[in-house]
Amino acid sequence: MLELNHISFEVESDSARQIGIIHDLSLKVEAGKFVVVTGPNGGGKSTMARLIAGIEKPTSGRILLDGEDITDLSITERAKKGISFAFQQPVRFKGLTVLDLIRLSAGRNLQIGEACEYLSEVGLCARDYIDREVNASLSGGELKRIEIATVLARGTRLSVFDEPEAGIDLWSFQNLIRIFEKMRDSIRDSSIIIISHQERILDIADEIVVLSDGRISRQGTKQDILPELIGTEAAVAQCQGRRKEE
Amino acid sequence: MAGTVALDAVQKRIIEEVADLHEVPLGAYNFRANSKLAGRNTTANIDITSKEDGSGIDIRIKPGTKNESVHIPVVISESGITETVYNDFYIGEDSNVVIVAGCGIDNCGKQDSEHDGIHRFYIGKNAVVRYVEKHYGSGDGEGKRILNPGTEVYMDENSSMTMEMEQIKGVDSTERTTKAELKAGARLVVKERLMTHGTQSALSIYRVDLNGEGASADVVSRSVARDRSYQKFDARVTGNAPCSGHTECDSIIMDEGRILAVPSLEANDIDAMLVHEAAIGKIAGDQLVKLMTLGLTETEAEEQIINGFLK
User: Fold this and answer.
1) How confident is the model at residue B21 (pLDDT cuts 50, 70, 90)?
2) Is the pTM of the predicted complex or chain greater than 0.80?
3) Tens digit of each residue's pLDDT (9 = 90 or more) over B274-290
4) Over the stretch A89-98, which tens digit does the pLDDT of each residue have?
């Protein structure tokens, strides 16, 4: 399904020096797989997600989707080929309503009832939200769930979620886990990549990838990786990474 | 009292744009086409009469009139027409009405066409008015399409007025002046939507005086300036009594568009609470990126963002 072949991504620092964010990263995500990418903050997880969606272009390496090289395709072209991306920090729009956004996601003029189903799916009382503007009047948790609903409405073959749990309160979090469990169960031949720090999301993964310093440090099934992660260096590093951020 | 309404295809299209009318409306109306009366209807509660000097019309709404509407569209489809029209609305106490005014100019000729409509509203106690005004220009002639609307609103105690003003397309030059004076408990809400293209220029000036206790005003403008167009938004709310006022100008600039926003407040009473906000900027990059990840092209994403913003 998705292949990252020797991807590197560098940016120029203030002193005009090249700084590597991703180093020679190769990864295969098979159809029907639910892959969770974890690791310390600053390890390159979000950058990898943005490279897949086409928001950033790799400095070197190729990205293939179903064998087709999509490295040079734009964000729009990749979206049309079946890649969806849920932002870590959902974007606000003055004037665009939740219904507008879900219709744009679905790519057709959905009936209100159909659009409401996607909202119910993410635990929002559809009637209260469908006409709301996607603006600052919505809380972080509400925006996050609407963001997930847009990906559900697209129903594409590859969905990438960048830290869906970030900024979500405890009550919503239970709901979020339920959404991903359901996605996991109905995955069929599509694939899901979730960037997450949450043990409960790691727990439903087919495959866990640990990314640190822009490299894959570990990769394998949940059974192999999860016991290693919990209470290990990676978990400690992850906690330290968070403290640094705070 | 129904008069005949004889409009040609161009005029009908313009009427649709400015008044959302596909046929002759129910209720009272006065159609003006190329400086002449093209049709009029009055009702038991709403009377429309021409001013004796021919400079415009008087619309009188009886006290207690509920759920009736008045349409007064103006169409100019000939090149080189310049007119100034005075329309006075006398809205009786305790009434609740919708007034739809709109002006469309189709100028295919070489000479400028200009319509300056001066609307004065005298709103009685406890009356509720919704006023909708749309401006539209079309035609590919060299002659300019010019609209300079002037609106004066005099609001008696506890009356309420909501003004929805929209100018999205085709008007080359516009200077809109809106003045309002509010007595105790009166409430004014203005929602302005404006988009300018090409080398158009649009000036929008508001002067709102809150003169009675509990009066309130909310003047909100959303606008988009594209190409090389220019806009100026100049809104002043004056609080002369314990009152509350809010004015907001939120704008998107594109291409080489320019916008000057001048929100201002004047408090002449210790209990006047006045707020202004103004923001101007281009479309946020992450908004475009989000819509592109949904499969829209950059141009489609821009259109959606602007349509939503001006909705």
Assistant:
1) low
2) yes
3) 999 999 999 999 999 99
4) 999 998 899 9
Q: How many whole angstroms separate alpha carbon B78 and alpha carbon B60? A: 30
HEC per residue, B112-172: CEEEEEEEEEEECCCCEEEEEEEEEEECCCCCCEEECCEEEEEECCCCEEEEEEEEEECCC
**CA gyration radius, chain B:** 20
Q: Give the separation between CA B238 and CA B209, rounded to whole angstroms.
A: 5
Q: Which residue from A55, A94, A150 is facing B289, i.e. has the nearest CB?
A: A55
Question: Which fold, A2-245?
Answer: Rossmann fold (3.40.50)
Burial label, B190 (beta-carbon count in 10 A; 0-12, 13-18, 19+): buried
Question: Domain spans of chain A?
Answer: 2-245
Q: How high is the ipTM of this complex?
A: 0.89
Instruction: Note the pLDDT of residue A241.
Output: 52
> For B297, which residue in chain A has the nearest alpha carbon?
A76
Q: Which residues in chain B have Cβ-Cβ distances shorter than 8 Å to A91?
A: 284, 286-287, 289-290
Mean pLDDT over B187-204 rounds to 93
- Best interface-test mutation with A: which of B223, B290, B297, B304 has the largest number of A CBs within 10 A? B290
Partners of residue B195 in chain A, C-beta under 8 Å: none
Per-residue pLDDT for A130 more than 50? yes
Name the residue among B222, B286, B309 with its Cβ closest to that of A91: B286
The strands making up A83-86's β-sheet, listed across from edge to edge, are A83-86, A158-162, A191-195, A34-38, A207-212, A215-221
* CB-CB under 8 Å, B298 with A53: no
B296 touches chain A (CB under 8 A): yes
For testing contact with chain B, the best of A91, A151, A154 (most B CBs within 10 A): A91
Beta bridge partners of residue A210, listed in sequence order: A38, A218
